[in-house]
C-alpha cells in the first residue's frame, strides 16, 4: 500500500514559488511605478534613481515573459514604449497591499 504524506514544505511550495517570481532588488518597485502610471522607460529610470539601465531592462523582460506586464510600442521613430500591467499583474496589487499592511502592523 502506498501512502501519500503531505509535508509542511509541500503546503508552502506555492508560496515559495510565488516569492521566487519576485527575486531581484527592483521587481516590486518597478511594478509599483508602472501601477502608479510611470510606465515609460524614461519615467521608470527617473522615478527609480538607483536603478541602472541594464537592471531595468532585465527586470522588464522578466516581467513580460511572466505575463505580468505587456510592452506596447507607441511609436517607432522615435521609439516610445509603454509598459502596462496585465490582468495577472493587476491582481498583484491586493497581494502587495496585504503584505504592506502586515509589515506595518508588526513594525518590522
From TrEMBL:
InterPro entries: HTH_HxlR, WH-like_DNA-bd_sf, WH_DNA-bd_sf
Gene3D superfamilies, per the entry: Winged helix-like DNA-binding domain superfamily/Winged helix DNA-binding domain (1.10.10.10)
GO molecular function: DNA binding
Alphabetic keyword roster: DNA-binding, Transcription, Transcription regulation
Transcription regulation found in the keyword field: yes
Pfam family, one: HxlR
Protein name: Helix-turn-helix transcriptional regulator
Species annotation: Leuconostoc gasicomitatum
